[in-house]
Write a structure and sequence with these properties.
single chain; alpha/beta; Oxidized Rhodanese, domain 1; 4 strands; Rhodanese-like_dom; Rhodanese-like_dom_sf; GlpE_sulfurtransferase; Rhodanese-like domain-containing protein
Amino acid sequence: MITVLLLALVIALVYAGYCLYRSAHLSEELQSTIAEGALILDVRTEKEYAAGHINGAANISLGTIRKRYKELDPQKAYITYCSHGLRSVKAANLLRERGFKQVYNGGAREDLEKLMKPH
């Protein structure tokens, strides 16, 4: 029983370390992509977007992106975001499935905004 608990603890610690490493790496990659002129894509609903959004972000909700993705240039870089990060993952994957090569998940709005602020 103790062996199983120790193994679970080790796995949890390794996973937490991986998450921290991935988060730091992703932050650097997103900051660089933003600096290079990536377009910010808000995939929340129109109502959520109207209540507040990142300046300059285009709004194509996850619910409409399957039809509206043709409005986007597949040669450009995009960073998707939403309220908590789940819809942005789905939208980024959907765009990649449709041939977009430079699509990044920005996660939650507040996290992406923090990355965009000068330090």
